[in-house]
Design goal:
The complex is a heterodimer of chains A (423) and B (130). With 423 residues, chain A is an alpha+beta fold. Chain A is 13% helix and 30% strand. In chain A, strands 6, 7, 9, 10 and 11 form a 5-stranded antiparallel β-sheet that branches. A 5-stranded mixed β-sheet of chain A has the order 16-23-22-18-19, with no helix packed on it. In chain A, strands 5-4-12-8 form a 4-stranded mixed β-sheet. The chains are: A alpha+beta (423), B mainly alpha (130).
Chain lengths: 423, 130
């Protein structure tokens, strides 16, 4: 927190050419400082307040999060340590951040005035919908949905793969409120020629070139028409926070998070696989066939990544925790899969030599993560690792090693492990 | 003005060594440390975090060396050095990324000499091959 404040320049410059950021800083500082002065106190949760405050700077965002590991400041990317993901519903403060571009001023200002969502392309009736149109003309639903970056686990590939070196924490599960994507597409009337969606937001490209698109991905029309994908304006009962896509974002569960466009302005229905920014080349693509680590795969042999693999995370206790010899200790976490529900989770305290079935709770809804619990007793003093292995409804389980190497390091669902010390 | 990171580290490491003696019994190994999976059939292990390298805080904490300054000014037009410092790539991937950043991401294309210096720097310091 103090870092954030120190990093901010004082509000003294007349700042000729940076009127926008200066104004934002001024608004925020005056707001919080004035409130503090009024109460005669520091504001204990001033940072949390700022998550929903108007007039933030991008550099203010990390101050509204707690315990995240910053991978990059421009673009802003941060992941969550496993033990901070123990909640059934990931709170804002612990939800990971993945940005391909900048955070638009509309989001930083929490200003949705005049916001519209355009539905066009291979539809009978192109639509331009205001937020009120969406809220009033379609059934409003709340779904608990996992969002996970396609590159979660990239740090474990060898040779390394380019991009942010996520370990295990580019995942979260929140309650998202909005309308079904399929309802909106049906209202526009999807033509038989529809093959794919193309999603657009108003986040600025890192180069600052207004002609460039930071990211524009899409999904096969069949995936878009499933009832699980939603256009959301609330996260955990609050307006979608600035860094997570205010005022409107897609949530397409089961797919890499990049399919869930933030700052959503337009969905164009395509008659071919979408070719927007980061749909082509090596972005969010896997080799069409298994390759040896380090292979240079020709671009034409790369295919778009679809379902995220089955996965689990041990969220309690924190890795390195001590436990008493001979006494049962609860170990718990979450499991999820791009294919839908989880069939079982097993845990091991002997490096996978033997496995014990964990208790598994049902999913709140499809694509919510599922809680698993196991009482483990460590037989003698010393070092143990607890490993977790989830299996999906197709009988597909997590591998003990890093799965198929690929040039950009996607889809690593190796079993999660924590250390436990028996004393 | 060369405040090098290794100076700060020297004192920090000395302090850490004292703590480590008493805490050794409880010092947990991290089974998920971002390094190669010990079970994976891999060849060479990148030694992440084992050797401290002198970095330049005025160049976004890039490792000090030939090409650091050119690399800094070439890259920070679009992104901070944080994303560079995370990488350990093959030479071929660096060559690909250079072209991708120019053709797809609007990176300014410098003269051939600068290109050679920057790529050599990246392949030296952020490599899975050396």
């Amino acid at each position: 927190m103090s870092d954030r404040i120190q990093n901010e320049p004082t509000i003294d410059s007349e700042a000729g050419n940076s009127a926008e950021p200066t104004r934002r800083k001024f608004l925020k500082h005056t707001g919080l400082t004035a409130m503090g002065a009024y109460a005669g106190l520091a504001i204990p949760f001033g940072e949390n307040l700022a998550a929903f405050a108007q007039g933030m700077d991008e550099s203010d965002i990390m101050g509204t999060k707690e315990g995240l590991t910053l991978l990059g400041d421009r673009p802003l990317n941060a992941e969550t340590p496993a033990h901070l993901l123990d909640d059934d519903i990931t709170p804002y403060k612990h939800f990971f951040i993945r940005n391909n571009g900048g955070i638009p001023g509309t989001a930083l200002d929490m200003n949705a005035e005049g916001w519209t969502l355009t539905i066009d392309g291979e539809v009978d009736t192109p639509l331009e919908l205001s937020l009120a149109d969406l809220q009033e003309n379609f059934e409003v639903v709340t779904r608990r949905l996992v969002l996970e970056c396609g590159g979660n686990g990239r740090a474990y590939f060898n040779p390394g793969a380019s991009g942010n070196q996520w370990t295990t924490g580019a995942v979260g599960c929140a309650d998202w409120t909005g309308v079904r994507l399929s309802d909106v597409l049906n209202a526009a009337g999807v033509k038989d020629s529809a093959v794919y969606t193309g999603h657009y937001g108003n986040d600025p490209h890192l180069s600052g070139d207004p002609e460039k698109v930071a990211i524009s991905r899409g999904v096969p029309i069949e995936k878009a028409m499933e009832p699980d994908a939603i256009i959301a304006w609330e996260m955990n009962g609050e307006p979608v926070p600035a860094v997570h896509g205010f005022p409107l974002r897609l949530i397409v569960p089961g797919y890499p998070g990049s399919a869930s466009q933030k700052f959503l302005t337009r969905i164009s229905v395509r008659d071919q696989e979408h070719d927007g920014a980061k749909m082509t080349g090596y972005s969010y693509r896997l080799p069409a066939y298994p390759v040896a680590p380090g292979t240079e795969v020709p671009e034409e042999d790369m295919v778009v990544m679809t379902d995220m693999p089955v996965k689990s995370l041990i969220t309690f206790p924190q890795s390195g925790t001590q436990a008493s010899v001979g006494e049962a200790t609860e170990v718990r976490g979450h499991a999820w899969a791009g294919s839908g529900d989880i069939a079982s989770v097993d845990v091991s305290i002997d490096f996978g030599a033997t496995w014990t079935a964990a208790q598994l709770e049902p999913a709140m809804n499809k694509f919510a993560w599922q809680r698993f619990r196991a009482d483990l007793t460590l037989p003698q003093a010393g070092y143990y690792e607890v490993w977790a292995r989830a299996t999906d409804m197709n009988g597909v389980a997590q591998p003990p090693v890093v799965p198929g190497w690929n040039p950009r390091g996607y889809g690593n669902n190796m079993q999660h492990r924590i250390a436990m010390i028996a004393t | 003005m060369t405040k090098l990171k290794f100076i700060a580290c020297a004192s920090l490491c000395a302090g850490a060594a004292l703590v480590a003696v008493s805490a050794m019994a409880q010092q947990p190994f991290d089974p998920m440390r971002p390094a190669p999976n010990p079970l994976a059939p891999t060849l060479s292990a990148p030694q992440s975090g084992t050797t401290e390298i002198a970095t330049d805080p005025e160049l976004g904490d890039l490792p000090i060396g030939v090409g650091a300054e050119d690399t800094y000014y070439q890259c920070i037009a679009c992104h901070s050095t944080a994303i560079i410092r995370q990488q350990r790539l093959t030479d071929a991937r660096w060559d690909y990324l250079w072209d991708w950043m120019i053709t797809e991401q609007g990176m300014y294309e410098p003269d051939d000499e600068t290109k050679a210096i920057v790529l050599e720097y990246l392949k030296t310091h952020f490599s899975s091959e050396r």
